[in-house]
Amino acid sequence: MGKCVGILTAGGDSPGLNAAIRAVGRVLARNNCRLIGFKDGFEGIAFDRCTELDETTLSNVLTVGGTILRTSRHKPHKMPVGKKVMDMTGAIVENYHRHQLSALICIGGGGTHKSALLLKKAGLNIVTIPKTIDNDLGGSDSCIGFDTALNVATEAIDSLHSTASSHKRIMLVEVMGHKTGWLTLGSAIAGGADVVLIPEIPYNFKSVADALKSRSRAGKLFSIVPVAEGAIDEDTFVRIKKLEQEISLCSDKAKKSSLKEELSKLTAYNPARIFDLARRLEEATQLETRVTILGYLQRSGTPSCFDRLLAAQLGSCAAQAVLRGESGCMAAYENGSCRMIPIEEVAGVRKELSLDHPWVKNARELGISFGEAVNTTGK
Ligand code: F6P
User: Fold this and answer.
1) Which of the two ends of the chain, N or C, has the fewest CB atoms closer than 10 A to its terminal CB?
2) pTM above the 0.70 mark?
3) Which residues have C-beta atoms less than 6 Å from ligand 1?
4) DSSP letter string over 1-37?
């Protein structure tokens, strides 16, 4: 028997994880290597909860959503153990060697890549595969799960058209994406939305209301408005920037921690925010407004064909890197093919939707409003 390789899935689940695990398993098996799956993210390798992934266990998982290994957001160096939070890096290193692993493949998003880098620095051979429905991981054109989530969000927006139109309503649709607007903008364009609110472009409340009123005046009887979980208005954006600056300059420990608490209240996901926006818009426009939260449906179900193809390519690319003895790298998808790039290029690097991205440009060309303040200075 050749090498023995470990694999785990960490962070929020996404459709296509099983397709990636299966691809890794098939390539390794064809090369006479063993694959061990660690359960519940990094917890599995910290507490040695594992299972053999062979042809039998990997059969019939390609189309199944979620992850057969389960997942968690717990980090190796900050892991809840009973009532305590402990650094479990030592235990992970020990279990890695006890299983005589040649490498550990970690499939995950932003948080997972930061943890993967820590484990690399602790001396382990780490190889990663990018997944996140938010599509906000640096280094890869697309991440496993994004395409499926985009399809789910677009189909939901498609469906909402009939009820919005029947009742002549404004329909706010909350789409996942706490820090970035890939999913929201993609589904807004694909679904024919009218206004879109994304974290990268803080919105002006009056501009949003004006855009909706002007649609109504033009005889458009309903409006669809996808809103990213992390969309914020201009005032909140200014308060966040001011708090960040105050925190960076503050030397008083107690004051700093209260400023941080204030900041996290503004930046944390708040499900009440979209209902508040709906109430204010209804008041300002005198148009009936309703909210739909797509929530976890976006992360559930069968992976799309694109995500299966992506998972198959990335899984194979990662497995082949392990067979060649490479480590400290991520399988990245670029212009239709895959290559390995250093984890350092990815860990902590958020892929934001830049304002000159073709999608942003295209949305503007199509007349989709981002709710930006109208420039009255003429400059
Ligand atoms: O994994 C990314 C994501 O789906 C975000 O879009 C969303 O904000 C978050 O996860 C929800 O996370 P949780 O599963 O911890 O509620």
Assistant:
1) C
2) yes
3) 11-12, 73, 109, 132-134, 176-178, 229, 269, 299
4) ---EEEEEE-SS--TTHHHHHHHHHHHHHHTT-EEEE
